[in-house]
Amino acid sequence: MIFIIGDGGPQDKWYIAIWYNKVQKVTPVWVANRDTPIPDPNSSVLTIWADGNLVLLNKSRSIVWSTNDTLTTSRGASNTTIVAVLLNTGNLVLAYASNTSSIIWQSFDHPTDTQLPGQKFGRNKLTGVSSRQVSWRSYSDPSPGIFSVVMDPNVAAQYLFIWNNSLPYYTPGKFNPQTGAFSGIPAMTAMSQPDSIYSYEYVDNDKEEYFMLTIKDDTVFLRTLIDPSGQQKGMVWMEEKQEWMLYFSQPGVCSVYSACGAFSWCDMDSVPVCSCLRGFSALSPLEWSSGNYTRGCTRNVPLPCSLSSIILNTGSKHEKADRFYRTDNVRLPDGPHVAVQGAASRGDCQAYSYNGTCSLWHTDLMNLQEDPDNQGNSIFIRLPASEIPRTKSARGRTIGLVIGAVSAFFVLGLCCLMVVVKRLTVFRRRGRITKGDGGGLPFRYKDLQLITNNFSADKLLGRGSFGSVFKGYLQDGTAVAIKKLQGVRQGEKQFRAETSTIGRIHHVNLIKLLGFCSEGDHRLLVYEYMPHGSLDGLLFDSNNAVLLPWNTRHQIAIGVAKGLTYLHDKCRDCIIHCDVKPQNILLDASFAPKVSDFGLAKLLGRDFSRVMTTMRGTIGYLAPEWISGTAITTKADVFSYGMMLFEIISHKRNVDHGRKFFPVLVAEKLIEEEEGDVPALLDADVAGDVDVEELERACMVACWCVQEDESMRPTMGAVVQMLEGLLQVNMPPVPRYLQVLAESASRSTLSSSSPIYTS
């Protein structure tokens, strides 16, 4: 129970804590001595004191921390033995040795930053004591931070987020027991469904009022915590990834009061989300670099004590006077804790804004936000003159004119030379664009306009989820596909960094990114061109005369699986595609498949994360967890792949099989007693050339991929091995939704507990 923060943390700060025994990553869920770490664990003692309290003693045997329960000795005879027991729920209890079910004190009544399943969070109506979750000060410091969560003392079935023990800054709304959701989080309704592994409940009686997270599968590890960022986060442990995965967070970072501290602004579309205003720098660069921005920013140059030197006229003679620097498109702070008043006097003004009426800020400027719709206000920040570029004086302008006139002759000659070079360049502009090395070659927007005839309709290859794609040619004759992205709000620096990362991801079954364009509002990606277009055109287009033979389809299925395996397991960062479907599978000259749009999940950053929470993907390929609102993992891609594999097998859309949904037909064929009937699923033109063993294997793999329980779905790496015959595939259970569709009495012959495959 004794731990230290990180391998490189201070070696003189040790804590008594509770963490998971079966989670390899040490994750404290309760810390006893948050304010008073001990310098040497070997000389300290954790023991039960004579009065029945659990105490931590230091080297000099002084009390460092105690349960401080003054009622323990009065609850029984003085000679009654009291023991400390750590329960499997994560609850540390003090109880009588003769009856450990009689709890005297428990850590569940004194949470730190985390709530565990089975732990009540609320208030005792008899004693008036309320639970309070308090964040860590930082990710490396478990001492109490400035953010906390408490029950709302004025509104039932509601809890509040509090800043600095004083200011409520967010509530998810009232809890509705009928829907199992808070009014501000309607997506929680899915948690109350009968098949959900966890639920949130609210209890209110004469003795207590509380919320409690309940979990139906004790092999799943869930926790909710109030983060040092001021957000409440729900985390689930993913054993296969050996990582905690986020399955919900609230509120948005920019809705947390003082999330970025003083004199900074919050922008959800930037990385990092917090930026210091002009003339300011991070107060604590170390904490800022670790993602904790709450201490905010400080002035680079202090202001004078008096405002007598402030000027608003740039023509003033006071060269050292302070000025007001204008920042546009911001959402101004509001609320009673912001010192705003009419512009009757200057006082010690830090900033002002005018929007019909003039307002002044006399204290630290807090909670400025960038307005993504560019409809915000302008605010004028007081800065020393040295922090604002000076405008030229009249005398300076005169001197500049004289110097300009003297040098005009030389400049004129240079301009003539530039005109000649420019004319030559017009004829050679195609030569400016050459094939990149895959590391993210930057292109100019006007050059991409040129090679696509200004993105004309005759160059249009198609339209996708995030923009239109056009064809063009580089100087060496290489054909390229140019995607004009829509809805990407990243800054140029972030966009270049992301595309550079994606450009270095290479796999034979992933589309190759040759380069990008990031100019102004233009965001474009340049890919290698695929002559056979997308898979959906060959599978579903009735005007396409190409009927893919079975062996080609089988190789396409394996190639796509290999590409997804690379994204999930071989990249530095796991990339979940989130939209696996035939439209996003491109085919080269030899019909080798290449997964496209694989980088958009990463590239679109925070914008994309918000899209994901409201369901991302294409109807017909969506995994059930998208709809239930639970955490999205790589298994969502596996489900989509399975649905697409059905279509690769049949050469038709899953819904284009008369009155039957094709996965239902596959399930029925697999459970029929007679063998050799599966080829009937294929077109008559190719059924005779099919490898029956490969076909049956592919059908079973597809059924395994579309299981409702994501833990039953194989990884994409296992899919590759099964399709290649390296792993024997066992008969899959029929997913419940297919059972309903099939209405087949014979489905009981399939085992619902059989493993996916055997080696």
Automatic annotation (TrEMBL):
Q: Name one cellular component (GO) term.
A: membrane
Q: Name one Pfam family in it.
A: S_locus_glycop
Give the UniProt subcellular location, in the record's own words: Membrane
Please state every residue range assigned to the domain named Protein kinase.
Answer: 455-727
What membrane topology does the UniProt entry give? Single-pass type I membrane protein
Catalytic reaction equation(s): L-threonyl-[protein] + ATP = O-phospho-L-threonyl-[protein] + ADP + H(+); L-seryl-[protein] + ATP = O-phospho-L-seryl-[protein] + ADP + H(+)
The primary site where this protein sits is membrane
In terms of domain of life, where is this protein from? Eukaryota
Biological processes annotated in GO: recognition of pollen; response to other organism
Is this entry keyworded Signal? yes
Q: Locate the Bulb-type lectin domain: which residues?
A: 1-107
Q: EC number(s) per UniProt?
A: 2.7.11.1
**Keyword terms:** ATP-binding, Disulfide bond, EGF-like domain, Glycoprotein, Kinase, Membrane, Nucleotide-binding, Receptor, Serine/threonine-protein kinase, Signal, Transferase, Transmembrane, Transmembrane helix
One GO MF term on file is: protein serine/threonine kinase activity
Annotated ATP binding lies at: 484
Q: Which Gene3D superfamilies match?
A: 2.90.10.30, Phosphorylase Kinase, domain 1 (3.30.200.20), Transferase(Phosphotransferase) domain 1 (1.10.510.10)
Report the InterPro entries cross-referenced here: Bulb-type_lectin_dom, Bulb-type_lectin_dom_sf, Kinase-like_dom_sf, Prot_kinase_dom, Protein_kinase_ATP_BS, S_locus_glycoprot_dom, Ser/Thr_kinase_AS, SRK-like_kinase
Similarity comment: Belongs to the protein kinase superfamily. Ser/Thr protein kinase family.
Q: What is this protein called?
A: Receptor-like serine/threonine-protein kinase
Organism of origin is Digitaria exilis
